[in-house]
């Protein structure tokens, strides 16, 4: 599963999903209803969900999921509860999200090491390689991603739209028409 804020979805998101298909038969593009570190700004939940449905419908191996909780552990547990046939859960993320996950100040949840008993991470570089702690290497794998995509972010796209710079080439065709109007 590939959780993200999808504000807006980018070609880098799709590259992550495609790279993860080397490890799994299907990758769910997951939109949490609640994020532990951000809110819903610009595009609302329903629009983001509609975008994901359009994107997944146009590509083999992609599905869409919604979770109530925004922590990786919440998502992995929800996925297993929804389909008991799932043997292993991979959470797909970029280096920045992996570092945030490993260093998060968990208060009520188990720490990152304990959580990684319930799922594994597939991590793509974002500007620089990710080096997991030695004790967690068996639960974290690197994704191979085209370096030209590693710098694409939703934030950059919103900023480009705001400045009137070219941006449509950085998002999936299915949403390019709408995204410009939302973020102007």
Summarize the topology.
Blueprint: E1 2-3, H1 11-20, E2 27-32, H2 45-57, E3 62-67, H3 72-82, E4 90-94, H4 95-103, H5 112-115, E5 120-124, E6 140-142, H6 154-163, H7 173-183
Parallel strand pairs: 1-2, 2-3, 4-5, 5-6
Gist?
With 184 residues, the chain is α/β, with parallel strands linked by helices.
CATH topology: Rossmann fold
- Beta strand %: 5-15%
Order of helices and strands: EHEHEHEHHEEHH
What is the tally of helical segments? 7
CATH level 1 name: Alpha Beta
Explain the overall architecture.
- The chain has helices at residues 11-20, 45-57, 72-82, 95-103, 112-115, 154-163, 173-183, and strands spanning 2-3, 27-32, 62-67, 90-94, 120-124, 140-142.
- The relative contact order is 0.19.
- It has one domain: 3-Layer(aba) Sandwich (Rossmann fold), CATH 3.40.50.
- By secondary structure, it is an alpha/beta fold.
- The chain contains seven helices and six strands.
- The longest helix has 13 residues, at 45-57.
- The strands form two sheets. It has a three-stranded parallel sheet with strand order 1-2-3, with helices on both faces.
């Amino acid at each position: 599963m590939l959780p993200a804020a999808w504000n807006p979805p980018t070609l880098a998101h799709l590259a992550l999903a495609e790279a993860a298909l080397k490890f799994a038969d299907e990758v769910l593009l997951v939109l949490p209803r609640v994020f532990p570190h951000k809110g819903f700004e610009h595009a609302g939940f329903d629009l983001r969900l509609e975008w994901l449905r359009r994107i997944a419908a146009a590509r083999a191996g992609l599905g869409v999921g919604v979770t109530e909780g925004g922590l990786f552990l919440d998502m992995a547990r929800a996925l297993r509860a929804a389909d008991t046939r799932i043997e292993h859960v991979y959470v797909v993320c970029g280096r920045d999200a992996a570092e945030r996950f490993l260093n998060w100040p968990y208060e009520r949840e188990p720490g990152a090491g304990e959580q990684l008993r319930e799922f594994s991470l597939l991590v793509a570089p974002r500007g620089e390689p990710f080096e997991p702690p030695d004790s967690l290497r068996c639960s974290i794998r690197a994704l191979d991603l085209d370096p030209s995509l590693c710098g694409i972010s939703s934030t950059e796209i919103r900023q480009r739209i705001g400045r009137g710079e070219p941006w449509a080439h950085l998002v999936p065709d299915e949403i390019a028409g709408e995204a410009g109007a939302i973020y102007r």
